[in-house]
Amino acid sequence: MNTKAVGLIVSVLAAGLLVGCATGGSQTSQMIAGTYQIARKLDKDLGSTVNRLNETAAALNSRVEESDQQIRELRGMTEENQRRLDSIKSQLDSLQRVIYNQFGLSAQSRAADASSSAAPSTAGVQPGTTVVEQQPTLASPGAATPPSGTTVASAPATGSQTAAAPATPPTDTGNAVEMYQQAQRKLMSDDYEGAYKAFDEYVQRFPNTEYTANAQFWKAEALFRMAERKNDSSMYEKAIGEYEKMQSGFRSSPKVPVAMFNEAVAYDRIGQSTKAVEILKKLVQDYPATPAAERARSELQKRGAN
Length: 306
Hints:
Layout: H1 3-23, H2 25-102, H3 110-114, H4 173-188, H5 192-205, H6 212-230, H7 233-249, H8 256-269, H9 273-286, H10 291-303
């Protein structure tokens, strides 16, 4: 029984005693008994109410704690999802870099390629941007036909050959494919020096396969990228020499127009803009319907040399 209820009972009893003294014992006893019953009922009701209030407060506290726990869990899930998103973004960036390396696109041309259609873009190419067409898809070892989009290197019309002497096509086609793929992987991983050596070895060992023309092109391209990385004029000159070997030794290859454009870029990088313009004009004249020629026209127009 709480303090207030006890005080109330005492007061009532005291009043009853005083009244009882005046009216008699019987009435006093009845009044005291009635007052006591009322006091007990009040105390019981108050106690029940207090208990319910305590139970409600405990339930509310429990819910608050549960809500706090849920908030902490949601915050943890949000942070974990953000980490996963960051990881996915990093993987996508890495995949994008691999794809651009696979197709030989330079960093400068990525913005233009992002908004282009499936056809190669013909606008927005700045002086110094390399243009590289898609490399062939390798056939499985032992395949009888060349991959789609490749051209088997043939002897030039003048009878001249590449720097490597003609050789009998190797019978180990599977080994040639594996070697070419290894060189590609080096280029895709930005190991330009390793790619240059691997493509050079391929050209030396397999001078007359369906991959040789492309290997010569990527050999020159690896040198070009090393020159860009090191800002080395002598390496640009070496790349120019390899692009010229590509053009003279594999005239029927679809890589020739691209090699001409990249050679012009290399000349521009070492300050020989007149020579660069001369090559761009020859590219437009000899291969007018190619994407590389379209880009060459754009460059010539920007320079006012068309």
